[in-house]
Amino acid sequence: HASMPPWNSTRVLHIDEIIHAGNLAYVVGHATIVPEGGSAPVVISRTLDIRVRQNDGAWLFARDMVTPLPLPARIPTP
Questions:
Q1: Angle made by CA atoms 48, 53, 54, in degrees to the nearest 5
Q2: Residue 16 and residue 28 in contact, taking contact as beta carbons nearer than 8 Å
Q3: Measuring CA to CA, which residue among 43, 47, 44 is closest to residue 61?
Q4: Do residues 51 and 62 touch, judged by C-beta distance below 8 A?
Q5: Is 14 in contact with 29 (CB distance < 8 Å)?
Q6: Which of 25, 43, 59, 66 is the 20 to 30 Å CA partner of 37?
Q7: What's the pLDDT tens digit per position in 19-33?
Q8: Residue 1 predicted with pLDDT over 60
C-alpha cells in the first residue's frame, strides 16, 4: 500500500454484503466517485473479497477481485 497514490477524497468504498461460514467469508462491495462539479456519485468498480479467519480471530484476504467499470462518456453537469 505504501506505493499507492494518495486516496482521492471523492472516492468512497461501500460494503454491500458480508456472508461467512465457519472460517471463510466473502465481502461484496462497490466504489463510487463524485465527479468534478459535485454531481451524483458514479459507480466506478465492483469488488469481491474472499477472507479467511486466522487463529487469532483476524480476517485476512485470501483473494481480492476488483472489476473496474467504464465511466459514462459524458458526465452531466448540474
A1: 135
A2: yes
A3: 47
A4: yes
A5: yes
A6: 66
A7: 999 999 999 999 988
A8: no
